């Protein structure tokens, strides 16, 4: 109740990714770039959901993850909106022929970028997987889905007998001198390479654009970009939640 008195109408925004659940309390007065993002197991959000005015959920996991949560919230289920990928929203036309197949987190990232940006944009979401989506004007050209930073490291370890990872390795672009550093630094180099390739590909479509970077490994990626890409890039801790805030704003 104290939260409501301070913020007015309160929306609970929930991003259920393949690695973890992120959430933010959002009232329409909160600037989009100032969301206070936290991680928590989904069931720990039940008490927050009970007092929120509305709950917006973006889920890319099997629905079973949500079922227990929804059961706990049966009394307030009318307050819950589970968002879906659309063929068109906020003026962006989705390029998928079957939009139900596109991860709704990618769609939320695009809506977030549209709200933050009037120019053409490329958006990279560095989560469990790293995704790239390209939007020129209001047209989604398409995207890429690749192994994310941790997935890339664990894939090498899982498939090569003599490769071990050192989970403690702090990744940099330095060439590694032991297996752990080679794996961690190589995974970071792959993420950077993806942004470089995306930018090269996108430059064939348009000259003036912004690169948006988000996701749990987004800061690591952003901070290691070469200067020519850094100058046109912006980092946001959680673009998916910003997309949900846009949906919430549109509903009021
Ligand atoms: N507190 C944290 N818990 C888990 N992963 C974290 C945390 N902080 C940063 N990360 C990084 O975030 C990545 C997952 O990003 P995230 O955006 O949460 O993915 P997803 O949306 O797929 O759940 C992990 O690979 C990890 O390297
Ligand atoms: C590509 C993803 C796995 C990314 O999920 P995340 O890494 O953010 O958890 C997700 O967007 C998804 O399940 N997509 C479905 C396939 C598609 O977008 O075409």
TrEMBL record:
What GO cellular-component annotations does this UniProt entry give?
Answer: cytoplasm
GO molecular function, one example? pantothenate kinase activity
Tell me, which GO biological process terms does this entry list? coenzyme A biosynthetic process
- How is the cofactor bound, as the UniProt entry phrases it? A monovalent cation. Ammonium or potassium.
Catalytic residues at 105 (proton acceptor)
The cofactors named for this UniProt entry are: NH4(+); K(+)
Residues annotated as binding ATP: 15-22, 128
Subcellular compartments: Cytoplasm
Part of which pathway?
Answer: Cofactor biosynthesis; coenzyme A biosynthesis; CoA from (R)-pantothenate: step 1/5
Under the heading Gene3D superfamilies, the entry gives: 3.30.420.40
**Enzymatic reactions:** (R)-pantothenate + ATP = (R)-4'-phosphopantothenate + ADP + H(+)
- Taxonomically, which superkingdom? Bacteria
Q: Which keywords does the record carry?
A: ATP-binding, Coenzyme A biosynthesis, Cytoplasm, Kinase, Nucleotide-binding, Potassium, Transferase
Leading EC class: transferase
Q: NCBIfam families per the record?
A: baf (TIGR00671)
Subunit comment for this entry? Homodimer.
Name listed for the protein in its UniProt record: Type III pantothenate kinase
């Amino acid at each position: 109740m104290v939260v409501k008195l301070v913020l007015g109408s309160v929306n609970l925004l929930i991003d259920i990714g393949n690695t973890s659940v992120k959430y933010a309390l959002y009232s329409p007065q909160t600037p989009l770039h100032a969301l206070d993002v936290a991680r928590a197991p989904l069931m720990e959000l039940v008490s927050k959901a009970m007092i929120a005015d509305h709950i917006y959920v973006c889920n890319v996991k099997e629905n079973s993850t949500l079922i227990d949560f929804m059961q706990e919230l049966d009394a307030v289920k009318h307050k819950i909106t589970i968002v879906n990928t659309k063929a068109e929203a906020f003026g962006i036309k989705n390029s998928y022929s079957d939009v139900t197949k596109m991860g709704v987190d990618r769609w939320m990232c695009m809506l977030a970028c549209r709200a933050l940006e009037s120019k053409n944009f490329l958006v990279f979401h560095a989560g469990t997987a790293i995704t790239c989506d390209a939007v020129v004007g209001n047209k989604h050209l398409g995207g890429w889905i690749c192994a994310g930073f941790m997935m890339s490291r664990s894939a090498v370890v899982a498939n090569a007998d003599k490769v071990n990872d050192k989970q403690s390795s702090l990744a940099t672009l330095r060439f590694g001198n032991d297996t752990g550093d080679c794996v961690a630094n190589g995974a970071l180099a792959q993420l950077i390479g993806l942004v470089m390739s995306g930018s090269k590909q996108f430059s064939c479509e348009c000259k003036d654009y912004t690169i948006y970077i988000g996701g749990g490994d987004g800061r690591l990626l952003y901070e290691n970009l070469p200067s020519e890409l850094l100058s046109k890039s912006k980092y946001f801790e959680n673009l998916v939640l910003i997309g949900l805030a846009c949906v919430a704003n549109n509903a009021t």
